[in-house]
Structures are given as structure tokens and as C-alpha cells.
UniProtKB/TrEMBL annotation:
This is Xylose isomerase. It comes from Takifugu flavidus (sansaifugu). Keywords: Carbohydrate metabolism, Isomerase, Metal-binding, Xylose metabolism. The keyword Cytoplasm does not apply. Belongs to the xylose isomerase family. One of its GO terms (biological process) is D-xylose metabolic process. The keyword NAD does not apply.
């Protein structure tokens, strides 16, 4: 690394300075990787990851404006730029102190004019990635395949009405799984941005869902064939670019997986910005996925609830991160998943230092969320109140309901004996007041 061009010469390794002034933004004030909470290091609870596409491929362009982010690592011929971009990324990872990164296949290596050329490009670039991983100790949290950007996928990939396109997607995923094994990826993500419809008039929904399930089963078989040891994840999103996406939210995906017998092979990668696009609260899908034992990883970002599209902003709300980390700690962690910053600096934030500031601030925000969550859990006040609220299910007829052995006849007999139930306050304001004390 030292022999290569330095892309961030003015930025040292980000230090932990808990007593730094508010204006000192190039240091961690709360994220202390070695701090132990509930028997585990902070870095192991949080498992931070940097996403490649936004941070190193992003240009700041939007539907109304041209690129604003002029990055030196994007200069040169496609393969030359790909190698410079990768070196810049690993310099960033090491200076930030993050142990994981994520990428799409077409982020790291340019797509060729044929599948064979694309695969050769991937081989060459991932050879360099493997070398840099060995030098730095940085690992791949997850790999995914871009099955939405190329025009061939305009009608979908796994749900395309043309099997020729589905076959191309299958060939691309096959190579993606090979790359995941080569680089030691701990997870593999499927995000179906084009798996849905704009109009039901030209769509056979049942057929498309069946074909998508077949596609996933092919991936499972190939993963087992090559001995790839990683967790498969599906990432829900309700819309954009499709008007309606099949992987609408956590419960939609869980229902799909259970219907097609895939729940043992997949978990969910939840992105809160997608959750709010579905009309839910920030933490909703994380809580629901965890309740079913299906929370595998989190794309840590946020959106603007007043907007109707995916803004992929860095998470800065401590209330939100506290709710997320409370769920994560209660389920015993995210491993082998993590918190991947699927977020981008604003197109107006044009300095390369802004990229560091955004990640540092978001990591501190999640560190504070973790600290808050641990205090909430260790104090046990709210948990005790919840336990008391449901205490009727720990005895008598309630215990039989909880165990699944009660009958409607028993319900009737119970009411005839006990009569009308008493009113019981939900005490929402009390819970909210206590929660705010920890924030």
C-alpha cells in the first residue's frame, strides 16, 4: 500500500478522542472499537462496512444535474480506473478503521461486451482485491450482482418474461458466487430492483414469483456445489425503480420464502430507507425480521420521510440507531452480517474529507445507539414493564394459549366464569418517557 499513490494524503488514521471539541469532526468521540459491552467488543457488535458503489463509484449526478464529485481515482481507462479506485478504497478502509466492505460485481470491474469479457475483468480486479485484503486484513461483508442497471434487465432478471434474460442473470450470479468464494465473502445479497411490475396488464404475477423462486433455488444448489460458506440475504424494497417490487417489505419476503420452502437458506438484509418508503417506521422491518429469526444484516442509512424516493443518507438520528441496536443486541448480534453504510454524501458535499466526516459521524451515531441499547437492556426497566403487561399468559388459561393447547370451548368457559375483562392502560407515554431518558 505504501508504494502506491496516496489518495487521501491529508487524512491520518481516524483517532478516538472522546473529549474532542464539537467542531473536531475527523475523530471518533463515541466509537471505541475495543470497548467491551455485555461481553463483546464494540466493533464486534457493530461490524461496520463501507459500500463501494456510493463511496467510490458515486459521481453526485442526479436526474436533474450532472456529476459534482470529481474523484481522482475515477480517471483513466476503465480497467486502470478500476484498479486505482480499489486502491483508494482500501486506503479509505484502513484510515477509517473499518474491517468490512461490500460491492456489486459491476462496481469493482467494468462490464465487457460479452459475459466472457466481463468475467475476465472480474478475475483481474478481484485478484488485486484479494491481494489488498491480505495486506490490510479488510474482509468482504457481502457481494451482490447488479441485475438491474443494464438495459437487458429493463423487464427484470429472475422475473423477466424472456427466459433468455433470466439465463443471463443466472450466468452472472454463478460468477458472482465464484467471486464470493474467492474473496471469502461472509454473505451474498439479492436485491431485485427490477423484480416487479409497472402494470398488471402485461404481467403474469404468479409465473414471475415461481420463476424467481426457481432462480433462488438454482443459486442455493450452486452455492452448495462449490462449497461456498456464506449467508444468502434478500433485501426488501417496495418500489423504485419498479412501481411495485415483489420484495416489498420484510413480511412480504418472509412470506415468499416460507411459501417456496426457502426460509432455511435465506435471511434478510434490511435497509431502513426502504422500510420508510414502504410506509413503515424506521425500525419496523428490523424488528419484524428479528422476531421471525430472519434478520441477517442491515444497510445502515436513512431517508427523508417527506420525500417519496430513496435518498440513501448517512444515519445521524440517535433515537433510530438506539432502536436498531436494541433489536440487534437482543437477538445476540448480526454476525455474519453487519452494519453496511449504503449511504452517499450529498452531491453538494464535494470535498473528499466529507466522505470521512460522513462515515465517522454515522459510526459515532451507531456507537451511541449501542451504548443506549445496552443501558436499556441492563437496567431492565422497560423489559420488566413489558413482561408484566403480558403476565396473564404465564398462568392458567393464558399459559395454555401461549403453549397452543387452548380451545375455543375453554375460552367460552373462562369468560362465563370471569366475566368482562378489566381495562388495562397501555402506558405508551410512560414507555416513551423512560426511553427518552436513555437518549
Amino acid at each position: 500500500m505504501a508504494e502506491q499513490e496516496e489518495f487521501f494524503p491529508s487524512v491520518p488514521k481516524i483517532p478516538y478522542l472522546p473529549n474532542a471539541d464539537p467542531g473536531d469532526v475527523m475523530c471518533f468521540k463515541h466509537y471505541h472499537a475495543e470497548e467491551v459491552l455485555m461481553g463483546r467488543k464494540m466493533e464486534d457488535w457493530l461490524r461496520f462496512s463501507v459500500c463501494y458503489w456510493h463511496s467510490f463509484c458515486g459521481t453526485g449526478a442526479d436526474p436533474f444535474g450532472f456529476p459534482t464529485l470529481c474523484r481522482s481515482w475515477n480517471e483513466g481507462a476503465p480497467m486502470e480506473a478500476a484498479k486505482r479506485r480499489l486502491r483508494a478504497a482500501f486506503e479509505f478502509f484502513t484510515k477509517l478503521g473499518v474491517k468490512y466492505y461490500t460491492f456489486h460485481d459491476r462496481d469493482v470491474a467494468p462490464e465487457g461486451s460479452t459475459l466472457e469479457e466481463s468475467n475476465r475483468n472480474l478475475d483481474e480486479i478481484t485478484d488485486l482485491a484479494l491481494q489488498l485484503q491480505k495486506q490490510t486484513g479488510v474482509k468482504v461483508l457481502w457481494v451482490t450482482c447488479n441485475l438491474f442497471a443494464h438495459r437487458r434487465y429493463m423487464n427484470g432478471a429472475a422475473t423477466n418474461p424472456d427466459c433468455h434474460v433470466l439465463a443471463y442473470a443466472g450466468a452472472q450470479v454463478k460468477k458472482g458466487l465464484d467471486v464470493a468464494k474467492k474473496l471469502g465473502a461472509e454473505n451474498f445479497v439479492f436485491w431485485g430492483g427490477r423484480e416487479g411490475f409497472h402494470s398488471v396488464h402485461n404481467t403474469d404475477v404468479a409465473a414471475e414469483l415461481k420463476h424467481m423462486a426457481s432462480f433462488f433455488k438454482m443459486a442455493v444448489k450452486y452455492k452448495e456445489k462449490i462449497g461456498l460458506k456464506c449467508q444468502f440475504l434478500i433485501e426488501p424494497k417496495p418500489k423504485e425503480p419498479c412501481k411495485h417490487q415483489y420484495d416489498y417489505d420484510a413480511m412480504s419476503v418472509i412470506g415468499f420464502l416460507k411459501h417456496y420452502g426457502l426460509e432455511g437458506d435465506f435471511k434478510l438484509n434490511i435497509e431502513p430507507n426502504h422500510t420508510t418508503l414502504a410506509g413503515h417506521s424506521y425500525e419496523h422491518d428490523i424488528v419484524m425480521a428479528s422476531a421471525f429469526g430472519m434478520l441477517g444484516s442491515v444497510d445502515a442509512n436513512t431517508g427523508s420521510p417527506d420525500l417519496g424516493w430513496d435518498t440513501d443518507q448517512f444515519p445521524m438520528d440517535i433515537r433510530n440507531t438506539t432502536l436498531v441496536m436494541k433489536t440487534v443486541v437482543e437477538q445476540g448480534g448480526l454476525q455474519p452480517g453487519g452494519l453496511n453504510f449504503d449511504a452517499k454524501v450529498r452531491r453538494e458535499s464535494t470535498d473528499v474529507e466529507d466522505l470521512f466526516v460522513a462515515h465517522v459521524a454515522a459510526m459515532d451515531t451507531f456507537a451511541r445507539g449501542l451504548q443506549n441499547a445496552v443501558r436499556i437492556i441492563e437496567d431492565g426497566i422497560m423489559a420488566g414493564m413489558v413482561k408484566d403487561r403480558y403476565s396473564s399468559f404465564s398462568r392458567d388459561i393464558g399459559q395454555k394459549v401461549d403453549e397452543g393447547s387452548a380451545t375455543l370451548e375453554e375460552m367460552e368457559a373462562f369468560i362465563k366464569e370471569k366475566g368482562e375483562p378489566k381495562m388495562m392502560s397501555g402506558k405508551q407515554e410512560t414507555y416513551e418517557s423512560i426511553f427518552n431518558r436513555y437518549i
